[in-house]
């Protein structure tokens, strides 16, 4: 056997084994249910990955709800893009009034968080939705603007097929405990550190 | 002063300080340039966050290119959704032939990676693009189907304003070194572990 034939043969054998392993793995998973998904960590991509999931869901002709607990100071490109093509599949509520250091008013922040959660509960009861994104709810939970146990009780009682995504840094341990799928976005390197500004299309 | 007034006043002061700090931070960042962005790690959300960035970019009326180095076995919801509303802003090439354990053919995998990179280079030369996503290119780099130094030389020579996103686990140290923005998606908890299968709309 020539050396390169040997390499190719060994590669094929290794990959055949891996494929058998993968196929067995996939076959062993049989449960289908709505997932409780958490995107947390101090890195980028928590909300962005949630918007990617929204896009995927829309491509499957699902109906999707979004409640933004913290409304950024910017009108986001994502929302503009989604509203261009999918208004009939999408219910979007931007409820927060800005970051907490923008309002500088604790009571107003609490009231905004409660109003957003009330809106989220209305969407949780909507039988047409397949995916609900509670964007930056972790911030409201972290500062105890909302009670975690009360929120979890409502989420646990939701329809079986409904997927819910909760985003924001500092997800509480009790939320991670209750979730099915948790990803931490970890900051490895950020351009702000070398003086690069927040740019349209990347940061917002 | 009543205790609740005291709390509100302290909160306001703390948030005023934080806002001053934030404003100074923002004002100190003045550089605008196309970023080299890497999404890596074994967690979910690497490609999904890239698709979220595509969505944001489309919302800003940018033109976007996508080269998929590993074509999944599924027709993704993201692509279907994006092609519904944005065909004129989007150039999409699904080049890979599947996962390496699907083809079981080293030479075919290498040829597919090289063809995808040739396509990526054509898009890098397109003056109309503002964002280029090289999805799962890290896999091709990891297995040395592509030479990292050759890829980095081409990326460094790109137009100044062009943002490039590279996704896939096991990003090479040299790529992280060269990048402006690196996020590691870390797996904290995955539903596969409790027997839940890959579900349409969530995994693909």
Automatic annotation (TrEMBL), chains A, B:
UniProt keyword Ribosomal protein, yes or no: no
Domain Cob(I)alamin adenosyltransferase N-terminal, first and last residues per copy: 5-26
Subcellular location: Cytoplasm
Native organism: Elstera litoralis
GO cellular component terms attached to this protein's record: cytoplasm
Domain of life: Bacteria
E.C. number(s) listed in UniProt: 2.5.1.17
Name recorded for this polypeptide: Corrinoid adenosyltransferase
Known function: Required for both de novo synthesis of the corrin ring for the assimilation of exogenous corrinoids. Participates in the adenosylation of a variety of incomplete and complete corrinoids.
Pfam families according to UniProt: Co_AT_N, CobA_CobO_BtuR
Gene Ontology molecular function: ATP binding; corrinoid adenosyltransferase activity
Catalytic activity reported: 2 cob(II)yrinate a,c diamide + reduced [electron-transfer flavoprotein] + 2 ATP = 2 adenosylcob(III)yrinate a,c-diamide + 2 triphosphate + oxidized [electron-transfer flavoprotein] + 3 H(+); 2 cob(II)alamin + reduced [electron-transfer flavoprotein] + 2 ATP = 2 adenosylcob(III)alamin + 2 triphosphate + oxidized [electron-transfer flavoprotein] + 3 H(+)
Gene Ontology BP, a term: porphyrin-containing compound biosynthetic process
């Amino acid at each position: 056997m020539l050396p390169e034939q040997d390499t190719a043969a060994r590669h094929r054998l290794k990959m055949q084994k891996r494929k058998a392993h993968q196929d067995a793995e996939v076959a062993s998973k049989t449960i289908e249910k709505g997932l409780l998904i958490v995107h947390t960590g101090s890195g980028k991509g928590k909300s962005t990955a949630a918007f990617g999931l929204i896009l995927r869901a829309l491509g499957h002709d699902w109906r999707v709800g979004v409640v933004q607990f913290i409304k950024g100071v910017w009108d986001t490109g994502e929302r503009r893009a989604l509203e261009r093509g999918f208004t009939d599949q999408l219910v979007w509520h931007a409820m927060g009034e800005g970051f907490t250091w923008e309002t500088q008013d604790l009571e107003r922040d609490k009231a905004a968080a409660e109003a957003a959660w009330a809106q989220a509960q209305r969407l949780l009861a909507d039988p047409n939705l397949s995916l609900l994104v509670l964007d930056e709810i972790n911030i409201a939970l972290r500062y105890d603007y909302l009670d975690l146990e009360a929120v979890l009780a409502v989420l646990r009682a939701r329809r079986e097929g409904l997927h819910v995504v909760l985003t924001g840094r500092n997800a509480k341990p009790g939320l991670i405990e209750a979730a099915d799928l948790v990803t931490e976005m970890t900051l490895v390197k950020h351009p702000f550190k070398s003086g690069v500004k927040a740019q349209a299309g990347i940061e917002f």
